[in-house]
Amino acid sequence: MATQRIRLAPRWIIFLLDLGCCIIAMSLAFLLRWNFNTTEISHYPLIKILSITVAVNACLLVAFKTYAGIVRYTSVEDTGRILSVNTIVCCILLLIENIYPKENGTSVLFPNSIVLIYFLCINFLLIVYRLFVKRAFHYLFTVRRKSVKAVLYSAGYEGLLAKKMISDNQRSEIKVLAFIEDNEKLIGKIIETTSVVRANKYNLEKLKREGAELLIIADPYIRKQRLNDLVDICLELNIRIQQVPSSEKWINNTLEPDQLKDVNIEQLLERDVIKIKNEQVGKEIRGKKVLVTGAAGSIGSEIVRQVLQYNPAIVIACDMAETPLHELRISLSEEAKIKTFIGDICDKVRMEQIFEIYAPDMVYHAAAYKHVPLMEEHPSAAIVNNVLGTKILAELSVSYGVEKFVMVSTDKAVNPTNVMGASKRISEIFTQSYYKYISRSGNITPSSASGLAHRNTKFITTRFGNVLGSNGSVIPRFKKQLEEGGPITVTHPEITRYFMTIPEACQLVLEAGTMGHGGEIFVFDMGSPVKIVDLAKKMIRLSGKVPERDIKITYSGLRPGEKLYEELLNNSENTMPTYHEKIMIATVREYDFASVYTQVEELINLAQKHFLMETVAKMKEIVPEFISNNSIYQKLDSSNGDRDK
């Protein structure tokens, strides 16, 4: 009971304050109407008038519960409710005036002018005292507690909403000093007492001198390049950067302090979304049976998700990794048209079961061993999986009349310096020469596939660089080292890499499958390469630490097979444009399929016997530009092992 009295007491205080305002407002109405002439006022029964006013207001206050709101949270809706109640009160007062007996035909209680003045006075008093309490409370218990001075990027809808939520949140320590904007129409304006200035280094330096220590990005659609520019300026000025999620992701339509997130390195490496002709991809995939190998991996699983968006007849997700494949299936809706299939691409009998049962129309081949140092230690495994697996799938695709076979390759296949890259280049050579062969001489039809309606399978290859967030990539490793307090390990101070996002990479694969007519190697404009040591330093600074002071960077030396710079084309290759400026076709050397087939068979035979040196030597014979780097296989190269690459 005591708890209830404590909870209800403030409501009755507000109720009494509201009634007090009614008495003051009515008294003011008479004073103002008669210019403070007490003689004129004395002709009216003030006690009766005030009593009626209090009684009418009390009834309506209880009915509408305008006193029940928390004053410090007064909103536009509360103001509207007060105006509505006061309008009804005035109507009742006028009604009472009309039915009350008059003396000599004149008003004796509530003349029209008195009611009008009362209406203005009561609204002014009730609204102003609420706003005063709200502002006083906000200053005493919110503003004074805010110790972190921040600048908000974007004075648009999302920025204004974020500013209001941050300012009104008592648990937030952030005080917004100013908006920074790129929109010329907003620069120089003052919005809700907060000035809007141009988003440049000069103004950020000025705000830094005023105490700004945080930049909050409130625009969820900020261009990646613009985000990078702002981050570079802030890191130089030692201003921390955080980002607000878009308002539709706010919890219960409010922005909590823990929803402000630090800008991460992946966001800075991403580029603006590249729009490709996805409607054509939809036409290509809709109603088709699609096989995805390596479906449990980073690229394969995203290909599965993107293909499902285009309403295929079914997606066959094939992988030999049981648990990741199971996790992929349960991550998709029950209605998803997907069939998981556990199988090793090197097991021809198992793979043929897929083609016999499902007869896929399209194959997206993403299964491969990809880790360079590991494959350098196990070259025979790289050949069996990457080359034999591709050969089996390619031959089955032709035998069973697959329309298109899209292979995921890598920039490491260009002028390879390691076993993994060379194995992918051999796979490229095999599929390209195979396509040229079947195009000229007709399909190769094994007896096991007799009776099928054969088509010339179109073989298409895509090459791209490192994928952000993929299993075993450099960024997760750096994050783990950061969490452990360092040091961050970089192989070489000059090493650079290209980066792209998983969805972007998979869009390329799907688009290549659509635009490809067979035999092409599609390469992607991946922007500028990123120096890995610069990436490490930026990650350290984004975490609020100083490189070399708080977190050390150490250099471990290039790993076996690793090279400083990745390439998308070798020196003998040129490109041809496509209908999209970011996607090009590499013009590569053609190979004779009969010769390639014989050499690949010999290579696979050596690999299956796990003759390591012999296997790598054969790889170098097939791919003459394969020059090992920092590897035991350098002695197999025609020149000495110290050859400068």
Automatic annotation (TrEMBL):
Residue stretches spanning the membrane: 12-34, 46-70, 113-132
InterPro entries: NAD(P)-bd_dom_sf, Polysac_CapD-like, Polysaccharide_Synthase-Rel
Domain Polysaccharide biosynthesis protein CapD-like positions: 290-586
Keywords: Membrane, Transmembrane, Transmembrane helix
Tree of life domain: Bacteria
SUPFAM superfamilies with a match to the protein in the record: NAD(P)-binding Rossmann-fold domains
Signal peptide, first to last residue: none
Family: Belongs to the polysaccharide synthase family.
The protein's name in its UniProt record: FlaA1/EpsC-like NDP-sugar epimerase
Organism: Taibaiella chishuiensis
